[in-house]
Amino acid sequence: MTTAPPFSARVTAPGAATPLAGIDSPAAVRALPAAQIPLLAAQIRQLIIDSVLTTGGHLGSNLGIVELTIALHRVFESPHDTLLFDTGHQAYAHKILTGRRTEFATTLRQPGGLSGYPSRTESEHDIIENSHASTALGYADGIAKARALQGCPERSVVAVVGDGSLTGGMAFEALNNLGASPRPVIVVINDNGHSYSPTAGALAVHLARLRGGGSDQGPNLFEHLGFAYFGPIDGHDVEALETALRRARALNRPVVVHVATIKGLGYEPACTDAERMHTAGPRAPGKPVVARRTWTDVFGEELIRIAGGRDDVVAITAAMPGPTGLSGFAEQFPGRCYDVGIAEQHAMASAAGLATAGMHPVFAVYATFLNRALDQLLFDIAMLALPVTFVLDRAGLTGPDGPSHHGMWDLTVLSGVPGLRVAAPRDAARLRELLGEAIADQSGPTVLRFPKAAVGEDIPATERFGGVDYLHRDEHSEVLLVAVGPLADACLEAARALSGLGVPTTLVDPRWVLPIGPHLLETAVAHRLVVTVEDNTRVGGVGAALAQALADTGSAVPVRRIGLPHRFLPQGERGPLLAEYGLTAHHIMQTVLQARP
Fold it and tell me: Per the confidence metrics, is the pTM higher than 0.85?
């Protein structure tokens, strides 16, 4: 395999024709003369860079897959042939080449604009909407089976999977089925050595050996699984890619095409810091980027402090040490931080093993990815009452990544797990405090949740009873406001406004929000109205748990639940979305006024 030359060597001289302007469909890509392909690739890269640095988005992975995407659309005829991308955040060039070039430049990841992932509502060329890793090979297996049953096996099925996504258990399960099948699925491995961070595990070592020695080493993993294997192919050589893809299609059997690409190619910062530039935020022209202290920052620092005094504390990440705040821990305690790849189920089972052997594992994971390992949480950890702490980053509304990344189901899911305690810190001080309490708890599993946001000012309590913090308390209180996590700020503003209107109100932060504690229940029974406020769906969660607990006591105190609607919510910034769905001081106050007995 040849090594890709520097990007500058591939750019046609200024003043040349602009082929991208004429690309409005895959047919136009196929019709483009081969001599114009390098310039097309350069223009796509520049459009991706300009757009992502304006709107934010996934940068490095999309810059590395440009030539491969062009080759795919020149060899296969989408949507007659099925092209799948795993994960979908490497589909930007695909969007540009399938008629969405204009919208891409202005609306990517904006409210009402193009999704940062494939979207079936956007285009007939987006067959699936996969923004969680390791799923595309399973889709490919099912689509190929359907094509065979429908009598049209000539419609090619091609799944592009990153080496990072290939570390997930679902990918191996699909390979197990695909390799033993006669159906002609083509698996294209986009191997850049990274997911968010460098790809971990034995598979990464195997792929590196293949990149270094080609197929001269004898049968490899994929051949042993029943695939024909082509590669490694220079992922920035369109001619070589087209040749390999046509050969793969002609075999009419399961084939792996191993493609080596450079993550971030064409943008030096993305090449030199691939993890940091996996995603990029919008840049205001002429203004420096101001780093704001986040919840993730506070967690990472506090975990290091706690681990410095406890040798049994270890950390686990599913390929996201940086985004979940564990990079500093990994540097400080390299032998106590484990990157398991994109494999949340395995992470849970491994955590169970660590806890069984006397360690206290802390698994830091996005709230939306917790759902992928519910079975292990229930039966490998909670049923055995193992002391494992889960730290859920990106809980609640997360912003421009859209419906699949909003962490708005964790409280619903976790409320059904027996023996599990969930904490929701309202500020940085409580995060530190609750993390310490969670790790000190040896009676069973614990969870902390916090949003993707800058952390605000601390909100001191006026008093604490039964583990519950009182943030506002009027005499002869009629209304009990129950704040979950950082929504305490809006609740405090609402409580003060209600007091000013002559509605005596008490505001509490339970700190440990699930299960419902006895003091919170006693306090609720003593009021005429209870209003819960959480950035979780209203179906399930803290409000539902408190209403059930009150009903179990025979109490008739009404509970009004302010939360997120029970549907998949669109992309958008966290602040405006909170306002849209009523998680503001004004809406909380209006809800109380309308619901007062």
Answer: yes
